[in-house]
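Fill in residues.
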């Protein structure tokens, strides 16, 4: 990130604030998606387990096979949630770094 003026710092901070606001909504959406996928998977798994015949190990294996795609969708929703959290952290860190640069620019203009 190249800082060329105090106006650029203000613009960058405003951009980061807007991104942060979007991040809150994205985080909610990702968490809701994980919860939805988890519910869908658990219901399907339990249903498949109860419908299966044989030993507990057999029933578990059958239930896992029948719900593998739902489990994958649930796992991918978790991955997406992790990405959203990482992006929010990145935005937060960028805001902190921009604030530090702003302080340095302020000191430079005062003493320069």
């Amino acid at each position: 990130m190249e800082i060329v003026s105090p106006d650029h710092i203000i613009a960058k901070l405003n951009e980061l604030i807007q991104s942060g606001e979007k991040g809150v909504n994205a985080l909610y959406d990702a968490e809701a998606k994980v919860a939805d996928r988890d519910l869908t998977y658990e219901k399907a798994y339990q249903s498949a387990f109860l419908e299966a015949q044989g030993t507990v190990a057999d029933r578990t294996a059958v239930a896992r096979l029948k719900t593998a795609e739902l489990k994958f969708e649930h796992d991918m929703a978790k991955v997406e949630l992790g990405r959203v959290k990482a992006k929010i952290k990145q935005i937060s860190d960028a805001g902190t770094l921009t604030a530090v640069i702003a302080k340095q620019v302020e000191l430079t203009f005062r003493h320069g």
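Residues 6-105 form one domain.
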